[in-house]
Structures are given as structure tokens and as C-alpha cells.
Amino acid sequence: MNNSLEERIEQIKMANATQRMNFFGRLLVDNREMSLWEHDTKLLSWGVRRWRRKALKFAREYIRPLATEADLHPHDYDPKPILSAAARQGFQTMLLTPPLGTASILPYYRNTVFQLAVIGEEFATECGGLTLLLLAHNLGVAPLLLSGSLRNILGQMIPFYLKSYILGRPDCMAFAITEPGAGSDVEETEGGALAKLVTTAKHAPEKGGYILNGRKCFISDGAIADKVTVFAKLENEGIESWTCFLVERGMQGFSVGRSERKLGQRASDASELIFDNVFIPNKNVVGKLRSGWAINRNVLNYSRPVVGAMALGHGRGAFERCLEFCRKTYLGPKHLIEYQDVQLELADMAMSLWAARSMIWHSCRQFRCYQSASASAKVFASDTAFKVCNQAMELMGDHGYLHAHGVERAWRDARLTQIYEGTNQINRLALFEHHLSTDFKV
Fold first, then answer.
1. Confidence category of residue 117, pLDDT binned at 50, 70, 90
2. pTM of this structure
3. What is the mean pLDDT of residues 236-254?
4. From 105's CA, which of 26, 36, 73, 403 has a CA 20 to 30 Å away?
């Protein structure tokens, strides 16, 4: 800002018109000088607030320095140091409370994923790829939890907690539903009924388990995962027989195929997984046989608000970088931010992000995540984030295309949030399906 504008603002502050109000009027005025981020944080319960502050600190100390290099050279950097740092600080065990996890107890029992959502926004503000690297394993863990099977929870999650939080050696997991001929269609009922599935489990009672054959593709963290929750139909049956199996690295016949070269979120791999007569023992069946469709739908209900929060982070990151650019960059005799048209555009961006955050937080306040709220939050937040990234690039002109500023990376990262976890079109159908299947009477 130029001196004259700064002086005018200071004069308004110095006038301190609030002091001219009566005592009770002054009690209703919020004169605290704090950012909108701080105002929003103070609305949260103590446990969620603590994780939001901790995630902001971690994102700036660990994600920001690595973001550009990991995006430009995704196959050359080593992800283990940042995974270990996140594990030691408790970010990898947020799906359960102590003694099996690290989530704060009271907010967790109000909603399982609220803490993950605020963490996802803070991480994604710095880099979408590294955020996906750190958070995708929650998708892999979620079927163990949401199956409701104590055998799965205690048998798999206690060792995971010990390795991850206590020893700082994260046992990374992945979630595998997508196949070459079945993508977002398996994330919506009508599409699922017509999906062309090839991954099949054949019962092998003589061996005490199942033989798994098929392929999965675009699996986040697939190349580094120690364990994968894989959804497969039973032999000679359709998607109604979908069952979840826990596949472990090193099982004979299990291998990783190609790793995709992506437009956005490049720091996290998207890999092909190949199953060639992989034997899965009965103890590695997650939940009950033929419960896979219900488990999958429930996992998506819990994960979509977090994806929306990640999208929000991409948009917020672009907005913050654009705001800083406008403060420092001249257009003619004045900084960009001194032009009222620029101020109006930045205000629209801030309001859009605020609205998206409100929708995500609302969907996360339900004790049990449900289809309409989760799908709506994901769609609105990801569409909003991509729009805000576009606005940021337009305000910054040629500078918006440079890697150094990070806005073009946020734009690429935000685009993917409109596609995975069900395309936004599929999520709209999920919302419609909920309305269609319930009667609404005034």
C-alpha cells in the first residue's frame, strides 16, 4: 500500500469510535485483531483446534520446503523422511483414539473425520501431492475400521499404531477399488450395477482362503503401500458379491505395475496393482463375505469431506500466494492490491473459500457421515477450489504459470479433486439418489 492509504487506515483506527459507545454496546463489538484463520480456529473444540494448529506448523516446516522438488521430480525424491515425521507426530494414526490411535477423544466421538478434514486443508495449502501421500493411507485403513470387525481392528491396527506412532515407521496402506473397466461407476449404485469388474476371488477351502486374480489401477500410494485393502467380486458372481481383502506386500503373485505420470498431485504415485493367483488367507477377509459394496460406500461417505477439505486447501494456497503477489507487485504507479477491482476479486475468492469451509465443517459435524452431505461437500469444495485457482492465475498473469509461485501447482492439484473419490458428476448423482430414495413431507 502507498503511505497515503496506510495513513488513512491508521487514522480510522486511531479515532477508536468504539470508545464512544456505552458499556453494554462495547461488549458486543469484537475488536480483537486476528486473521480470519484464527477466528475460524477459535470456533473449533479444543481437540480439533489443537490438530489444526499442529497441521499448519507441520505443513510449513516439512511440506513447504519439499513441495516444488517433489512436484517437479516425483520419481526421484525419497518420501520416507516426511512419512516418518508425520508418523512420529501422530498424523498417520488419526482414525482411532488412544490407545490404538492419536485422535483427540471428545471430537472423535462427535465425528470420526473432522480432525482429518482440518489437517487435510492445512497440508494441501502447501502441496496436494504430498498431502495425498500422507493421507491416502487412511483410505486403506478405513475398511478395517468401518467393517466393524474387532478381529480386523485389533489384529491389524495395534501393530500399525506401534510401528507408526511409537517407532516412526509408518506401515503405509492403500485402498483399491478402481479397475481398467470400472472407475467412478463403482462409486454410485446405478453405475455399480453395470460395472465391468475383472478382479475376482475364487474360494479355495482346501487352502483355507481365496485365490485373487485381476488388476487395479490409479491406486494412490500403491507403489509404496505395505498393505492394500482390495475389493473383488467372488467367482461367477457380480458386484453384489464384492468382498474386501487385505493384501500384503510380499504375497506371492502380488506386484506393482506402471506408475502413472499425472497432471496434478504428482508427489503421490498412482500405480497399477497386479494380482496373479495371490493366495489370501481367511484371516485377511475384511468384514463379512459380500459386504464389500456397503463397506465401500461407507468409506466414501467418510472420505469425501476430507477430499473436499484438501480441495479447499488447494484453493486457499492459491489465494494466499496471489494475495502476497498483489501486495508486492506494481502495476503502473501502485501495487496491484491498491486497485479496487483487484480487491473485489480477492474478496470474492475469500468468500467462496469461506463458504466451502462452512459446508465441509457442517458435513463433518454429523456423528455418522452420510451420503448427501459428504457428496455435496466434496463437489462444492472442489469446484470452488478450481475456480479460485483460475482467478488467482488470472490476477497474476504470466507469473501465475511459473513453478516458483506455486499457483499453477495448486491449479493442477485442485483439478484432480474433481475426479477422484467419484467424479463430481457421480457425486451429484449420489446426492440425487438420496433424495430419490427418501420421502420428504412438510
1. very high
2. 0.92
3. 94
4. 36
Q: What are the angstrom distances between the C-alpha of 268 and each of 57, 130, 259?
A: 21, 6, 10
Strands 243-248 and 200-204: unpaired
Give CA–CA dist 398/327, Å, rounded: 17
Report the CATH superfamily, name and number, of domain 174-292: Butyryl-CoA Dehydrogenase, subunit A, domain 2 (2.40.110.10)
Nine-digit cell string for 138: 487412511
Summarize pLDDT for 320-347 with one digit per residue, the tens.
Answer: 999 999 999 999 999 999 999 999 999 9
Distance CA 353, CA 410 (A): 14
Pick the CATH number of 294-437 from 1.20.140.10, 3.30.590.10, 3.30.1330.60, 3.40.630.10: 1.20.140.10
Residue with the three cell numbers 510449513: 60
Distance from C-alpha of 213 to C-alpha of 139, rounded to nearest angstrom: 22
> Other CB atoms closer than 10 Å to residue 400's CB: what's the count?
23
Question: For residue 93, what is its C-alpha cell?
Answer: 494414526
The CATH number of the structural domain formed by 37-171 is 1.10.540.10
Strands annotated E in 139-253: 173-176, 200-204, 209-220, 227-234, 243-248
The structural domains of the chain, with segments of one domain joined by +, span: 37-171, 174-292, 294-437
User: Cβ distance 112 to 141 under 8 Å?
Assistant: no
| DSSP-assigned letters across all residues of 43-96 | TS-HHHHHHHHHHHHHIIIIIHHHHHHHHHSTTTS--HHHHHHHHHTTTT-TTS
